[in-house]
Design a protein that fits this description.
By secondary structure, the protein is an alpha+beta fold. Helices cover about 45% and strands about 25% of the residues. The protein is built from one helix and four strands, in the order H-E-E-E-E. A four-stranded antiparallel sheet has the order 1-2-3-4, with helices on one face. Strand 2 (about 75-85) and strand 3 (about 85-95) form a beta hairpin. The protein is rod-shaped.
Length: about 110
């Protein structure tokens, strides 16, 4: 009986840290996936804006709508386009700061 208890103790000492490691890796993989999705969307939209679509927007910050199907995988948030006299900026802001803590993405470009 003592041998079984010792074996269970050793097993639990190994399994519990392993479970926490697996959960942490899953969370990190999800954050990296979300960051990649946001970067692809922002980079693609920034190319369109830098090509001349920025002229359709007034000065100041505006909520920017996108048509990317992959945006449905993102946590709640919004894309913000900001135009100044010399620069344009597109960023994704998560609605909940905790959910999007590692996936804030911003791109800027100078106007011609």
């Amino acid at each position: 009986m003592i041998e079984v208890m010792v074996a269970l103790g050793i097993l639990m000492a190994v399994v519990i840290p392993l479970v926490f490691t697996i959960l942490q890796d899953q969370r990190q993989a999800r954050d990296l996936y979300l960051r990649a999705v946001v970067m692809e969307i922002v980079d693609g939209e920034m190319e369109v804006l830098a090509a001349g679509a920025w002229q359709e927007h007034e000065l100041g910050p505006h909520e920017y709508s996108i048509n990317a199907n992959s945006a449905t995988n993102l946590p709640p948030g919004k894309f913000i386009f900001t135009r100044t006299e010399k620069n344009i900026r597109l960023e994704w802001r998560p609605q909940d700061e905790f959910a999007g803590r590692r996936i804030k993405v911003t791109r800027e470009a100078r106007l011609p």
